[in-house]
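Quick start: what a row looks like.
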Amino acid sequence: MDSKSIILLNFKETRRRSIKLWKGIPTEYLHWKPDMQAMSCIEMVRHVLEGEHLYHTIIKNKGNLGSYVSPWNGVS
């Protein structure tokens, strides 16, 4: 297996495990925070997805973010 295949397999496996974990969060706990300064469970999921989107944008644009706008701007 070459390097590219290993990296892609790692991304897929990480995403698979994340989705399994996220689906296990009971609905009543989606907005739970361990303390007032922390992100809620749903905010943390969104944070992870936005970070991944940003990472892919950086790769696609060869390091140039230009006028990057988050797809989650204005979404609560």
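That is the whole record. The helical segments are 3-23, 41-60. Residues 3-23 form the longest helix (21 residues).
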